[in-house]
Amino acid sequence: MTQTKYTMVLIGSKVKKGWRGRIVDTVTTTFLIVFICAALVINLFIILINASTPGQEVTIRGVIPFVFSSSTMEPEIMVNDLAYFRKIDVQYPIEERQIILFEENNVLYVERVIAKSGTQLTVDIDNYPPMSQIGAMEKIVTRQAVHGVYSGRNRWLGALILFANTIVGRLLFLLVPAVLLFYQGQIYKFFKKIQ
Q: Bridge partners of 140?
């Protein structure tokens, strides 16, 4: 009888250890899958944004994402923000004080509409650098050159995209998920040995 009780205790503790091990295995595998999927989605988004060129901007559900790299529209749009512009057609009414995304000589600009005259818009930046002449960036834009109207921004996505375009960012978002994907079994065995 004593031996039977001892055997039952051993089997019971082994079952408990197996049960806990399966939970750890499931959590580890789920974490790896979520991390790899998130990294792949971020990579796809970054590739789409980087692939855009004037006249061929990436539009995601009617929104043009644009990483803003200057301080000319502060405080409304800060440096490194991911600004969202609603894609519009020629019939869309543009009002004064709206921020627009437009193309001039195959370069995209973001400026505020300060006056309207028929199909022409007078635009200017909000924030001039110190020691610069106010009004020097004012220009007249045709209505056909306008691609979108500002609808919002995201501070963290802009910083993430700029980080992902660095060497360290590319390694983190491309190399790390690939290594995890191909060596998942070996990583899993390594963590299992540690536990």
A: 122
3-state helix, strand, coil in the chain (%, to 5): 45, 25, 30
Pairing of strands 99-104, 63-67: unpaired
* pLDDT at residue 10, as a whole number: 46
Low-confidence ranges of the chain (pLDDT < 50): 1-2, 6-16, 54
Q: Which CATH superfamily is domain 56-154 in?
A: Umud Fragment, subunit A (2.10.109.10)
For the chain, the domains span 2-49+165-194, 56-154
